[in-house]
Amino acid sequence: MINVSSPRVDVGGASHQMRVFHVACFKCKKCDTKLAGSSFYNIDNDPICDKCYQDTLEKCTKCQKPISDRLLRACGGTFHVNCFTCSSCNKTLDGIPFTTDAQNNVHCVPCFHEKFAPRCAVCGKGIVPQEGEKESVRVVAMDKSFHPDCYKCEDCGLLLSSKVEGAGCYPLDSHLYCKTCNSNRLRMQATA
């Protein structure tokens, strides 16, 4: 900035924030690079060169590059919007529900369910919430998980969770049976 002891600026001056500089004196506040004719940034009313400005920016947790536009804060980190993605499918998670696993990896909810949901012992598919639901229903029997619709008698197909007379699980030799089919199998074993 020009003060009384500096020579007068008649020709070739530069101005910034209502201050007038000699061209040779118009420098980056941090590194003293001459700024006349160059792009610069105004940080706390001081001119800063592009390189020093980039050094002031937060770095993306994922790619380690400076974030100069919109940033996203999540899971203790700062990210470019396009860098905050599902670790399974790489879908951008800006504005989308997500969750983390035990290792703090980020997943969209469908990928998390696909990867970590308990598997049905009958169909092998994950037991996940139905469309529009937040919770899933799981039947556990004989240390195995089942979808309610897969929890059936292995002989007659009766839903073991239904309210029908004789429904309910009557396991025999690690198999699921309704009361009637269990009785029939026990009779067959007794006569064999």
From TrEMBL:
InterPro entries found in the cross-reference section: Znf_LIM (IPR001781)
In terms of Pfam families, this protein maps to:
LIM (PF00412)
Q: Which organism is it from?
A: Ancylostoma ceylanicum
SMART domains in the cross-refs: LIM
* Annotated GO biological process: cell-cell adhesion
Q: Tell me the protein's name.
A: LIM zinc-binding domain-containing protein
What cellular-component terms does GO give this entry?
A: focal adhesion; stress fiber
Which segments constitute the LIM zinc-binding domain?
Answer: 58-117, 118-188
Instruction: Tell me one GO molecular function of this protein.
Output: metal ion binding
Q: The organism sits in which domain of life?
A: Eukaryota
**Keywords associated with the record:** LIM domain, Metal-binding, Repeat, Zinc
